[in-house]
Amino acid sequence: MKATAGLPTTSRTAPLRIAAFRRFVLADLISATGSAMAPLALAYSVIEQGGGAGSLALVLATNTVPTIVLLLVGGVLADRLSRSRILFLGNLLAAVAQGALAVTVATGHASTTSIAACGFVSGAAVAFTVPAIQGAVSQIVPAEHLQQANALLRLPSNAVKVLGPVIGGLVVAVSGPAWALAWDALTFAVAALLLLGLRLDAPLAAVGSALSELRAGWTGFWSRTWLWTYTAAGTVLVAAWLAGFQLLGPLVAARHYAGARDWGLVQAAFASGLLAGTLVCLRWRPRRLLTVAIAGAAALALPLAAMGQGLALPAVMIATLLAGIGLDVAIVAWTTAFQQHVPQAELGRMSAFNNVGERLAIPLGYLITALATRTWDDRTVLTACAGLIAAASVLNLCVPDVYRINRADRPREGRLPGGRPQESERENEQA
After folding, report:
1. Which residues of 361-390 are buried (b: 16+ CB within 10 A; e: fewer)?
2. What is the DSSP letter of 242?
3. 153 exposed, middle or buried (CB, 10 Å; 0-12, 13-18, 19+)?
4. Cβ contact 23:194 at 8 Å
């Protein structure tokens, strides 16, 4: 976009001078305030209608499955259609789903089936918006400002993660889950209107069928060794982290620490680490982006190892704080590397392939952990999860192609108005 011309490369807030990026950040912030409350409201919606762990598991599964199944379709569309239009429709669909859920809960007509159905629609909306997000940012912001843009996007959302669950808990406790769900629906609707105003051009003229574009996307994904090896390592890492921290963490806190109080402190340390990591990314501009992403994510092994070895709560909190810092640095570094080294015309499909692998890790990690805890105690499994994260990170760092994915601070050539890349750009940026 023309608004990006003449920005100083050293300014940490340079992307905010771009009107379209300010609109994008505002939409993300508004949506984040609702999303931070939604999980708690959803859980209590199930509980209020008499559901237990089985019902909640069903609701969560119906939200996750359509995302995994439809992600590749969303990736193809993100490379063929206007990404701003996709983001508008995806947020609008999520608003409708959450609005319908809020109404059924408020009127007392909610059931496990109706809640799961609304979750299914919301999961489908995610499948179409996720592949479009990274491509939209790189259409709006020039290459030399992408790290700052990615950090600025995470700054308000990480801040909301610290306060959102607390506020959501108060809303649910005082007024019931319906109001929190209604707020989530409203934030999706407002975000949809803001994103519609971006009016980004389609990144790629459709030259073949969707299936042929998907096959070409797989070829491009597999040809980038750094991309598929990072995705494979990330699948292991995400499975181990979620299984260890989200599943076993509360159980270990209940059995070996002071229960919910101490676990709340650990969660607060992690959220604070995420926020601190964002601030680090606003100041630090590492050259070896992919190396930093892999090393930063490896810090997730620290709190799992600390709890697995039975360390005192302060040590666990410090380890968790460092894990949050490392994770956020890793996310910003990875996103920047991905946006700079994948051509605009392929960003949607490459993002979809990457996300499919990491989202498959969620049910896989929970299933394997459930089986493992039948044989070993919780602390042993936690230590094993920490070992898996460390091993996956070390193996990923052994891939030579990783060290070729470094910062590219020069503006991309051949960008058409509205962010559409010319053919020369797609040819020259093949990684």
Report:
1. bbbbbbebbeebbeeeebbebbbbbbebbb
2. I
3. buried
4. yes
Domains of the chain listed by start with CATH number:
16-202 (1.20.1250.20), 219-406 (1.20.1250.20)
- Helix, strand, coil % (nearest 5) of the chain? 80, 0, 20
Residue 430 has pLDDT above 80, yes or no: no
324 vs 245: CA distance, rounded Å:
12
Quote the CA–CA distance of 380 and 363 in Å, as a whole number.
20
**222 burial class (0-12, 13-18, 19+ CB within 10 angstroms)?**
exposed
Alpha-carbon distance 88 to 251, whole Å?
Answer: 40
Report the alpha-carbon distance of residue 90 to residue 379 in Å, rounded. 41
Classify residue 22 as exposed, middle or buried by CB count within 10 Å of its CB (0-12, 13-18, 19+). middle
Q: How far is CA 343 from CA 163, 253, 415, 420, in A?
A: 37, 45, 11, 11
For residues 136 and 120, what is the distance between their CA atoms, to the nearest angstrom?
A: 25
Whether the predicted pLDDT of 208 surpasses 80: no
Counting Cβ atoms within 10 Å, is residue 230 exposed (0-12), middle (13-18) or buried (19+)? buried
Residues 91-124: pLDDT tens digits? 999 999 999 999 998 888 888 888 889 989 998 9
